[in-house]
Structure formats: C-alpha cells, structure tokens
Design a protein that fits this description.
Elements: E1 2-7, E2 11-18, E3 24-31, H1 34-37, H2 42-51, E4 60-65, H3 76-91, E5 95-97, E6 103-104, H4 106-111, H5 113-116, H6 120-131, E7 135-140, E8 145-151, E9 154-155, H7 162-168, E10 171-172, E11 187-190, E12 193-196, H8 205-211, H9 232-242, H10 252-282, E13 290-294, H11 298-307, E14 311-314, H12 316-319, H13 321-325, H14 327-339, H15 344-349
Parallel strand pairs: 1-4, 4-5, 7-13, 13-14
Antiparallel strand pairs: 1-2, 2-3, 5-6, 7-8, 8-9, 8-10, 11-12
Amino acid sequence: MILGVDIGGANIKVSALQTDNSLKLRSIKLHYPLWIEGIEGLSKAIKRAINLLSYDEIDYAALTMTAELSDVFKDKKDGVEKIVKAAMEALGNFKVITVKGSLLDPKDAIDCYMDVAAANWWAVGWFISQLREDGVVVDVGSTTTTITPVMRGEILSKGLNDVEKMSLGEIVYIGALRTPISSVTSMVPLNGGWCRVSSEYFANTGDVNLILGYITEEEYDIATPDKRGKSIEDCHNRLSRVVCGDGRMLTSLQTRLMAKFIYEKIVEKVFEGLTQVLSRFASQGCYLGTGFAAGLGDFIALDAIDRAGLEGIMLRDVIGRDNTIALTSTSLALYLAHKVGVDVEKWISLLR
C-alpha cells in the first residue's frame, strides 16, 4: 500500500493506493485544528487518520504540508521541523515532497524547510498534467483556494512559496467552510438597501453553503462560530448576526438572499485569482482551455471556471468525491507510486 499524507492547519488528508492486482484509491479527511489541538497530538491524529482507511501495511509513504504557516509555530522553519518529527513518530520511514517535485528524506526536509513548506500544489499539478497536457486546476478547500496551471504537460506555477503565490493569484485565501463573512464582503442587500456587516466571527462560508444546499451537515465538519448546531435554522441564526440582528429579526427568506449574494462574492474572489493566473498566459499568446474543479468547494471552483469561459470538469466525476476533497494527498500517493515504479499511467489513462 502506498500512502500520501497532507498535513494542513485545519485538516489531515490521507490517501491510500492499493497496488495489488488493480489500483484502488481511497481517501479521508480528518478535521484536526492544529491551533486548538496543538502539535503534541499530531502524531496520534495522523495514525488515527490512517487507521480510518483500514489498511495494515504501508510499503511507501510521502508527506506534504501547509500547517507550517500556523501561528502555533515560531516560524516556518519551526513548523516544518515539528510536523516532520510528528510524522516520523506516526509513519517511521517516508519521503517529503518539495516545490520542484523532489522527494527528500525527513532529515533533509528539515534542513531544506522552505523547499517543502506548502509544496502540496506540485503533486496536484503533476496529476493534472497526466490527465491533460493543458489546463488549470482550481482546488477550493475548507480554508484556501489553490490555482495550478499546466501547459504542454509541465507545471507552470510561478510562485514557490505562500507569499509569492498569494501575490500571483495562485493562492486565494478563501474556502468553502472556515472563511468569515466579513472577509468576503463589506455589505449585504437587506430591506431594499445595503447593510454593512460586522467584522465579528458570527458566521462563515460553511453557513452560506449549507443554507444554499451546496454542502451537507456531515461535510460541515468544523466547529461552528457559535459552537451550536449545523441545521438550516442554526445557519440562519448565525447569518442574522452578521448584520447585528438575530434569528427573530430576520426571516429565512432574507438570510437565504444574503447567502446567495455572499456566495456570488466568494465565486468572484476565486474568479479574480483564476483570471490573474490566466492573464499571465494570455500575455504570451497562450490559452488554457480546460479548468478542473476540485476540493470540498469544487462547486465554487466550477462556477469560477465557467465565468472564465473555460471548459469545466468536475474532478469528483473522474476520481470520486472523497479523492477530490483530498486531492493533495491523492495526487501525492499517485506521484509516489509513479516514482517507485508502479504503472499509474495505465490507471490514469482510463480516467481521461
């Protein structure tokens, strides 16, 4: 069994590729808010995530991470070192992917910490390059959106760290669950006018997407802003507070319309990042005609891709919902299998 592990600040994603007879790929996402649970429990959480896949023997494993950005760490160097050491306790022997696709031993990864910090996009780019020679993948997770272009089978992301990628539109800090409403829009339509929103963490994009039916209560797997439930009524009450009201002051029709307006603003922010990335290629006379929508918020990605005038492909229709939610670990498992000599090309060719 070949394992890909992605350690994020909010979630651990694990994908297992079974190589006996035929290739079978399974993935899970385990919510583990590092800023709450702490680094001390990370090793056990990784083991718990792996156990959820019900596989006994690990032949090869590879790690990627974005959690080094968390402010529980002094800096990225501290974050990479502690995450790698926690993974060593859980996994033993494994490789760590770099922003250029190299696979390093844990000790070398700690020494070259900036090469492995937030390198998860590279494996995703590699996987997409195996599906299509030209295209762009828009991966909307619970917290962030990553946009990775591929042309002529090459990964052509320009940013090699979070700061560069944020500047280039390759990372948009918006997601399908955890983003506060005040970071999406400064006002919403209400009572025939415009009402400014509070900057308090009263509601998030998870509330918006659940009200609109884009996600289920099960997929809303984080703590809610008020630590209450995840029903439509609970989301209505939280969204009412965004304008400093409550569930008695506003009707469900009003908060649903607010949710629809906010949703369009979410898509707009992803669209902004996507068109910024596409504009770099347009300036060179190049056109990326296909957009792959991935992640928990793949519905957001698809709407942004449609706005950009690209052919939209839902990766959930290609590799399944769980595998596209965990696209980073999915891609890493496939890339590692490729590097150790497994014929993943034959399997991927069936997906095209």
